[in-house]
Write a structure and sequence with these properties.
alpha/beta, 6-stranded parallel beta sheet, 7 helices
Length: 178
């Protein structure tokens, strides 16, 4: 569900910030017998983040957990900023705003659970996956048709790029018979 205010808000976005568990993943946390944690990410979501980077947006992750898999994913997708181990996420966002001289109206944030509400309540574009908790959905002006780790990130990225009139890039296949 996209509220009327979301399209106008999307036109002002310069930075897009994501939670991880339940947003970039489906919220599952898998451990092996040694306690090593594993996460599964969506490739289409990743392409959305890459497109945001290539289009000049600041991309960031703010997550309460501290995980090497997240650091690897952030590096692989060239996220501008990574904040891990932030149980209270608002100070991390305030740091980002100061560093890049931005206002809350220039920020899109996607979260899925109660600790995200403190940020969602203030940003220009407050977004969540379709399977976010009810209180988060009530706070957001963009609710994806997709669940966390299932395309919600990509849908938000495409929405912002479309609202700002940024063309989609297509890779043309090369080779025999092309």
């Amino acid at each position: 569900m996209v509220k009327e205010s979301a399209t106008e808000a999307a036109k002002k976005i310069k930075m897009i910030v994501f939670d991880v568990d339940g947003v970039m993943t489906d919220g599952s946390i898998t451990y092996d017998e040694d306690g090593k944690e594993y996460k599964t990410f969506n490739a289409k979501d990743g392409h959305g983040v890459v497109r945001m980077n290539k289009s000049g947006f600041i991309t960031a992750i703010i997550t309460a957990r501290n995980n090497g898999t997240v650091a690897h994913r952030a590096k692989n997708l060239n996220f501008t900023e990574l904040y891990q181990g932030y149980k209270h996420k608002l100070p991390a966002l305030e740091e980002l705003l100061k560093k890049y001289n931005l206002n809350l109206e220039n920020v899109a944030y996607m979260g899925d659970d109660l600790p995200d509400i403190c940020i969602l309540a203030g940003v220009g574009l407050a977004a969540c996956p379709s399977d976010a908790v009810k209180e988060v959905q009530e706070t957001c002006n963009f609710i994806s048709r997709y669940g966390g780790g299932k395309g919600a990130v990509r849908e938000l990225c495409d929405f912002i790029l479309d609202a700002q009139g940024i063309e989609k890039e297509y890779i043309v296949c090369e080779g025999p018979n092309r």
